[in-house]
Structure formats: C-alpha cells, structure tokens
Amino acid sequence: MTTEPQTATAPNPEDIPSRFDFESAEKEIYANWQSGGWFHAEPDSSQKPYTIVIPPPNVTGALHLGHALNNTLQDVMIRLKRMQGFNALWMPGTDHAGIATQARVEKRIKDQEGKSRHDLGREELVKRIFQWKEQYEARIIGQLKQMGCSCDWDRTRFTLDEVCARAVRHTFFDLFRKSFIYRGKRLVNWDTYLGTTVSDDEVENKTVKGNFWHFMYPVIDPQPGEPPHVIVATTRPETMLGDTAVAVHPDPAAALSKVESELNVKLKKAAASEIEGIEQQIEALKTRRTEMLPALEQLREMANDGRMLMLPLMDRPIPIVTDIWAKPELGSGCVKITPAHDPNDYEVGKRCSLPMINIMNADGTLNAESGEYQSLTMKQARKAVVGDLEALGLVKEIEDREIEMPVSDRSGTPIEPYLTDQWFVKMDTLAQSAMDAVESGRVKITPARYSKGYLSWLGEKRDWPISRQLWWGHQIPVWSIPCPTQADCDATREKVSGLSAFSADIASVEIETSSEPDPEKRKQLGLPDFTLHVCVQDESTELEQQLESIGLVREEDVLDTWFSSALWPHSTLGWPEKTSELDYFYPTSALITSRDIITLWVARMVIMGLNNLGDIPFDSVFIHPKILDGNGETMSKSKGNGIDPLDVIDKFGADALRFGMADLTTETQDVRLPVSYECPNEKCQHQIPHTTKNRVLPSLACPKCKETFSTQWAESEADLAFPRGPVTCERFEVARNFTNKLWNASRFAMLNLEGYSPAPIDEAHLTVEDRWILSRLVTVASTVTEALENYRFASATRTLYDFAWDNFCSFFVEILKDRFADPELRPHAQRMLVFAMDQLLRLLHPVMPFITEAIWQQLNRFAPQRGLESVADATECLIGASWPALDARWSNADIETQFARFQSGLGSLREIRARQNLSPKKEVKFSIRCDQAYADSLSPMASYFKSMAAAELTSMGPDVVPPETNATVASDGIEMFVDLEGLIDKAAEIKRLEKEQKKLEGNIMGKEKKLSNEKFVSSAPAEIVERERVSLGKLKDQLASVITALKKYQ
RNA sequence: GGGCGCUUAGCUCAGUUGGCUAGAGCAUCUCGUUUACACCGAGAGGGUCGGGGGUUCGAGUCCCUCAGCGCCCA
Description:
By secondary structure, this protein is α+β, with helices and mostly antiparallel strands. It is elongated and about 115 Å long. The two termini are 71 Å apart.
C-alpha cells in the first residue's frame, strides 16, 4: 500500500552544505532516537531477544579510547541485530570500582582539605564518594550518548544500587550456606597508606636502588668446630624482628650441581656476548663448592640436630631448618625466614610449621611483637635495626644492589606483605563448572586462543579472596562473635538459632575453628578457640539489632568489586526476583570486552551465572584488541595517555570515531594508535605528537607558533582560558573523509532527484552498471553480515569503505551523471540511485549511525517511496529499518566480469593520458581490437569512456586496424590503440612500453619455469595448472603486442 | 620460568583453508579546481613479507630455530 508520491523540489547546491555538520545533527538525531523509544526493549515473546550487557565502566573517571572501542563494537552489534529484527537490549550501567574509586577520592580530599578518611569517618567518606560517582557517572553516560550508543537508558544500573545490592546479598548468603565462603589467614599485599589489601593486579613492581645487608646471627652454644655465627642477607632488615627461623638447603651439594649443569646447558646455546658472563658464573660456583659447601653441609647437620640460633635484638631462640627455598648458590647460602612478612617465607613457614609473627600494625607501624621498636614505622625501624646491629658488631657487610620493590598502583606506597584474616570463596566446584561451560562450547570465546588462558587460570582453582579493607563497596553481610570455649560456642549458637530468621531460612551460621592449633599459644595471644559467624540474606534492621544484642559484630570489610560485577548479567535483569526480563533476556547473547579481564570478570560471571541460575550468562564472548598509544603502551588513567573520545568527536564527529574504531578491530591483540595534538591556532595547525611528557600536561605551547593551548587535562581557570588543542589521529581523518564522501554522494543525489517517481524497476531497462551495482550489493551485504556476525569488524568496514567509495561513488554515480542528462533515461536512473543509496545506508548504519540517519531523512524527503521489485514507504527512521536482504539472484559473476572490462579499459586510457601528459579537456580517439564477444560485452558502456576519460571509442572488433601513431595497451587478450596523431610524446611512450615489456618478460619467465616443471604439472590440481597456462598465453600475447609497438618507435 | 601475541612499503595495518603479478589508507612525486565532494579527482614511485633452516610441484601463509618487541601468569 503506497500513498501518492510527494517529491520535494530539488534544492540549489548552496542549500546543502558540502560538509556534514555533524555537531548539530548528532544531538538532534540522538534525541529523536531516544524520544522514539528505539533504545528501549521489553520482553516480547513474538520476537527473538538479542542482549548485551555493557562492561560497566568504572566511575573512577572519564572514558578513554579503549572504552570508545569497546562500546562502539557493542553498539554496532546491537544496531545490526535490531535491524535484523531481533528485540535488541543493550543493558547499560556503571561499576563502583571499589579501591580505584575510593583511592582517587581519598587522594583528592587529602590534596584539597588535608583530611584522611579517618578524619571524615565511614559515613561521610561514602557520601563524598557517592557525590563523585554521580558526577562521573553523568559524564560517562554523556560520553556514551555522544558516541551514539543505543543503550536502554531506562534500565541503567550501578553495581552498588539497591537491585544489585540485593543480588549480592543473596549470592553471598547462598555461597555461605553452601560453606563455599570461609575466613582464613592469608599473606596479602598490604597498602599501608590506604590501609587495605590490594590485589596482585593492582601491584606494580619497580626496580629501585637498595642495599643487601649481611647480618650475623649467633649460634647458641656452638660445639667445637661449629661456627659462632650464621650469616644471612636481606634487602629488608626491619623484618628480622619477625624472623622465626634460618633456613639452609637440605642437600646443598646436589643443588649446586643442578645449577651448574643448567649453566652448562645455557652456555652451549649462548650467544657470543653472553659466554664470558656464564663462564664466570660457573667458575664462581666451583669456587663456592670448594670453599663453602662444607660449611653449608655442616649447617644442614646442625639443622637436623635441632640446633638453635639467637635472634639478635629480640633475644629469641630460633631454629635452623632445612628447606629448598635456601639457595646455596646465593649469598651465604642461608636465608632468614619471616613467615608473616614475605610470601616465600610464608610458604617455608607452612612447610616447616614455623610460628608466624606479625610485627606490623595496619597503618604500617610496628606492633608489640617488635619489642622496643614498637610504634616506629617500617622505614624508621630499618634505620634503628641496622644501627643497633652495627653497634653489636653483627653487621658483616652492606652491598649496593638494585632490588625489585612492589608498589601499590593506587597510592604509590611500597607494599608490605601482611598476614591478616580474609574472607574467601572456595573455588574447586565453582571453577570446574565454568571450565566445563567453555570446554563444552556452551560459551564460545572469540578469538579462540583466549580460551586457553581462561581454562588454565580456572584450572588452578585458587580460592578467591573477596574481602577488602575499604568503605566503598558492599559491606560483607556477616556478623561474628569470638567464642573462647566450646561451651560458649554452643550457648551462642543456641541463642542465635532461636531467632525467627533461622526458622525462615534467611540467616545461616558457621563456626570457624581458630587457625592457631596450639591451645597454650591461643591462651597466650588471647585468641578464642572458635568464632561464630552469622550471615544474613536480606537487609533487616530488626535482625541486625537482635544479633548485635547477643554480642555479634558486623564485619567491617567490603567485598571485592568483582564480586558484584560477577553478577552483572543477571543482577541487572532483576535477579533474585523472577522478573519477566530475566526470563526473556537471560542468557544474554554476547559479551564484548578486552582481554585483561577474562579471568577477573568473564570467568567469574560464568561461575556466578551457573551458580545462581544454573545457566551460562552469555553464549558468546568477543575479546577485542587493546589500544596502545604511539609508543606501544596501553592507555590507562594512571599513565595519563588515555584520550577522551569527546576530543575525537569534537574534531571528526562520532561516526568517524566509530568507523575508525571498528576499522582497527582486527584479530590482533593490540593495535597502535599514534596520536598528536593539533595546534588550535588557525594559521598554524601544527601537529605535535604525543610524548610521555606532553600527554599529561593541562596546557602546552605549540613549538611552531609558540601559542599556548589547553588539553583534556585542563582544570584550572588559567588553563581553560587557552583554546583547546584537539587530539588528532590519521585513522580518524580517513574515517572523517569517508563520512564526507558519503555526504557528498547523497548531496549529489538530492541535487538530481527532482521529479523522482517511484516505480518497480523494469528488468528490461537495467543497464550493465545497474546489474553490476546490484550484484555488488548482494556480495557486499552478505560479506558484511557474515563479518559482523563473526566479530570481524575491520573486514566489514573495509568492505563497506571500498564498496561505497570505489564502486558506488567512483563508478556508479559517475556513470549516472550521463544518464541523468538524458530525459528518457533519467527516471529509471533516479530509481536505481535511490535504491542503491537506500541499501548502502542500511549497511553502513550500525557503524556510522548519525550520518546515515541524517541522509536517510533527506532521502525520505525526495524519495519517500522506493524499492527494486516493489515500491514501499521507507521507514521513518533508519534505526528501525530492516537489514538489507537483496535476492541472491542479483548476484551475477558474468556482469561483474563485463564491468571489470570497462574498468580495466578506463584504467588503461587514463594511464596513457597521464603518461602522455594530455590535458583533461583534450579529447582522444581510440579503438579496440578484440573478438566479437568482447566487443558485444563492452559496447553498452562505450559511451562512458567519453565522460570518464575524455576518450571516444571509434571502432571495436576483430578487424580493427591501428592508427598510424598510437599508444598500444594489450591486456586480457585484447589490444587497445589510442590515437595520438600530433600528440605523441614518443619518449614517454617508449618508456612506458619498455617498463611493460620488462614486467611481462619477468612474469612469463616465472610461469614458463613453473609450467616446464613436470612435478608441478603432475602434482598441482588441474585447474591451477590450466589457470597458469591461460595466464601465460595472455601474457605472451601482450608481450608480442608491446614489442610490435616498440618497434615502431625505435 | 610458563603461556599468548607481534615482526609485511617511510608510518599504521590487511592478507580466511598454502595457488593468478603481495594489497589498503596516510605520507611522497606528477597532473588537475570539469556544476556531489580539494575532507576531491587522475596517475606514478616505493616491499629479497625480521634472520636462518625444513616440508611441498608451490610458503607472507605450515613446521623447526635464532633475534627483537609487547602483554598475561608465576
């Protein structure tokens, strides 16, 4: 059903700007999409769902180009699926990002007000962080909107909001009740500044200058022949206060031999430059064997005899133990063991059942266990300990040495290994379920190689430490009470179990047995035999008060951020409520993220989805490349090399940003994006490449024009007053130029659509180029669809770019110019142009939604009804249009070959024109000697040579006689003669022919060699051999023709 | 130490299962403002596919090895 055509009158060229004004268009278009409800999805059983949950950006700060990439790809998929008729939901939201955000806000408060979090208190700090969150959440969402992201904003979630909090409580309760959650001691990375644990991935190792101190520990009652001291070396002398043993290798001779043989193996393979160093090492080992081995073996015997050392300063007897951690090839061959303050020593402590003495308070000062050094900081203690040992004459040597120092990523302070109580999730069963999901193919990871890391990480089944000593996050819903004795424990348990919550099964109790096995020691340290923990499912003031009145106290710690992120695919859909959304949209369809959080996040979502719903969270995971800067470094906030996508949008437009992003999404794992500032001074516009220094400055001076400009980091009024220097990158220029090309193609259409009348096309009227563009459209549409559905984004963008520019603009539109000039051909030509544009716009929409929508609206003004075999009203918005589904019968290889002949002929003509330096207006005549079939296939396009190469085809066929003075081009079994009477530049022509001759001879030789190789002819597939033969024949014809032509001039 | 990548034109990258003369964009050079577009058009130059070995009729593509770079996990 169509209404009367209403074609707008043609605009004047000056009515349509020759550049797309993306700035104003983007805002308006986005607002229209939103008000049209296009982003919102409701469960609807008549449609298939397609769901993506956003990797929630951290509210730590603004988004950078890495996020732009991530979200572009998601929006491309969502828009594609929406057009394909799916009920597409893109679930948006943000992540509270525990430590990262708290650290950032704390630092800000410290800088601006000089206050610590303890000055503010928990409630006030959380309030402040919430204010920060509001600000950055708004900014992040604003950025996503400007990028064109079609998220269902009505459903926006935050990992700390009520819905998510409820999901967290229910999950925690469930795991607690299944006894998957426990509390235990663990050596953690302690940030003494923030007063919290930081995870391994938040620790950075720095190489700094330090010392290696050699101390002498006296032997208690040395027997005759025994040394009076044992020498140990350390880079952290202050930890000796917590030493509980000295270790020596159980078989030093064997250990030395092993090292030596390893060195010998290395020596054999070593490069010349390394040989000397390795030989020296082997020599040193030999010396060591003769000089030190007896002493080490003696120490080993002493250890076996249970001999003791006196720990200086503390006057504590400590044993000599044997453990493989002691390296006989290093230092004295003995190593001091501080189990509570060193990860390796901790393992030794566990192996040798050593006491673990914690000498540090949470704030980094020393505690009562360090005797008279109590309340010094670790740094002060170092000085004091070294000084005191020197006074005692127990320092043997101090070496200068470079040491690896772990530093907190968040605060920059050195990490102290620290033994504390932490909550854990038992991973064995849970991890196995997530491994099965990927191994069985229920969750498909693309590119497949990333499954390996996922599986091997899960395969370790290491328990997940989930407590963080922070205030920003989900507070652990556990109330605890120490029970000194079994009797206390039973009594408390009885009291607690009597509460109504227990009969309602919304609270659960667990008993923790003290980790200190020695009852005497427990008494000494005041440790209870048991601790009773109660976990409460839902927030309940009443129950909490009841528990507290019994004497239970709530755990202060909060949960690891990833705990709530792990629930994201179902918590956002309302779980644990049985919502219709959950029922309809879960499991989600795709998860698109970057590789650094495959284990931290992806694996845990699979675990939690399976645990909470018994189903995987998503069918498919796509891991996209990481964006590196021009120096090959990953973009991150801490480095300051992250680029605000809005900078790019301001300069190039959102479509260019998106196209650029999709275009660099190949299957590689990283991609470099060298960026520069552009001097905003109109007359200068100098490009200033980013360096490690200038990329973090709030303002800088242009080295060329010396004018100062501001950057994205500008905060002060003074900096903001300077003009903003945008960030540029070649990739986006290419993309921007592409949008402009598209804009102008549509501009051409608008200027030529007056009098457009919609009608189904008559196949009889289709020209070769019509059939060609239709055939190309079928191929391009299927290539793009297949590429996008398999996450090959760059392949899709390149196909589209080439098609739009090289096929559509450079040929189809160019040819149409001739046809528009002819009133008889015009109506059909208009319909073809309209149809081709319509299809192209649809194909480009997922990647470049704004400009395609803008052009669609214009096209709707001039050609509201369109179609190929039948005509229909176009949808009002492109976002809601259907994905192209052109009948495959339009695909036509013969037509494409036929058209390729025209293109090749045109190319030859243009090349000759350029070589001969003919002015564009100078018309030439040419003829083609070819068989009749070829002539017939080319003749429909003969007239186009005139407009596209200023060349007139005078004759074509088998009997063509070349003109006296001509330039000859032979290719594909034909000869083309360009009449150059009175025009020829002989030297140029000879040069061209000689070059051609050389090239042909080279190729012919290669092919002849190949074909004369009997093995090739007999082994290679027949079609390959045949292809080579045909190709050789043609090359020989061409060469003959070139030689004939050359002879004429020589 | 283990794992995963990368090395192709001056730069940034394509190159599905080995098979026509290894491609693109930018940059460079030449020509051109013809009424969609100079954010444009026409043309050109530029590569022993990191080195070495192997498998094969045939290797940028598969295998081994060496070198350099990056990331992840210890």
